[in-house]
Write a structure and sequence with these properties.
0% strand; mainly alpha; 273 residues; globular
């Protein structure tokens, strides 16, 4: 079992407490977001700017069930990080992840409160900061290795889903803020703006796939969000066949590239073993 100096142990304990408090704040924020305490739910806040029928990039309501997976996973991560790491490398990994992950949970809660206040452009800044911090977490995961299946699921898997979903949510949030501000497309039809943004999301997913050697959790979360955008645009209002097609195409591209990269990475690992 890895052993640290008393100074390291003291700092580890403080970071463990910060992660735990951040998770509690995150859960309370999510409860506020769904109206548990009697307030306005997120989809009805800010004049309904984030509701499923507000913009072409709003996913169907079923898409948001991914948050259940994220919150349960973060609970598991929060518990896991209290246990001593079995190796020095695993211990160093835990130390590097704790504060950035805690920061993402606090930003998540902040985003909900900002939306509740109707400050859509501030919410764009908050979710952009959240996405940036999740990318930092992703890079830490790439530079370190999980220790065992529990670490792979509760750390790499959960944080990968978190990142993938926020990639899609960021696009939806920006679209909501622009629509609420009265943006009329500057002469370009809303359908084609949506197609362009979805293409960017697809490219981001492909870059993450290539950079991360095929992170399955990230790809699945991105494809999940994109697929529900396609469902809502095909079966809901406003209807948009180009948006639905672009969302599905982007989802397939992300999953396809991730699968290819993953297979090649496994093959290389097998060859070098």
């Amino acid at each position: 079992m890895a052993q640290g100096t008393p100074h390291d142990t003291s700092h580890d304990r403080l970071r463990q407490i910060v992660v735990t408090v951040s998770f509690v704040v995150c859960v309370i924020g999510s409860m506020i977001g769904v109206g548990v305490f009697g307030g306005t739910s997120v989809n009805a806040a800010a004049g309904g700017a984030l509701d499923t029928d507000a913009t072409l990039l709003a996913p169907a309501s079923a898409a948001f069930s991914v948050w259940t997976v994220v919150y349960v996973g973060l609970a598991g991560y929060t518990l896991l990080q209290w246990f001593p790491a079995p190796t020095a490398q695993a211990q160093a990994r835990q130390r590097r992840l704790r504060l950035p992950v805690a920061g993402t949970m606090l930003l998540n809660a902040a985003w909900i409160l900002v939306v509740q206040a109707g400050l859509l452009w501030v919410s764009v800044l908050v979710i952009a900061a959240l996405l940036t911090l999740l990318v930092r977490v992703f890079l830490i995961l790439l530079r370190t290795s999980p220790h065992g299946w529990l670490d792979r699921v509760l750390v790499d898997g959960v944080l990968g889903i978190y990142l993938g979903w926020v990639c899609v949510a960021t696009a939806a949030n920006i679209a909501a803020a622009l629509t609420s501000a009265g943006f009329d497309g500057a002469g370009l039809a809303a359908d084609w703006w949506a197609v362009g943004v979805l293409a960017v999301v697809g490219v981001i997913g492909v870059v993450l796939a290539v950079r991360g050697n095929g992170p399955v959790a990230v790809a699945l979360a991105i494809a999940w969000g994109l697929s529900w955008i396609a469902v809502e645009r095909w079966d809901g209002t406003p209807y948009s066949a180009p948006t639905a097609a672009a969302a599905l195409a982007a989802a397939v591209a992300v999953l396809g590239v991730t699968a290819v990269v993953r297979v090649r990475a496994v093959a290389r690992a097998g060859t070098s073993a």
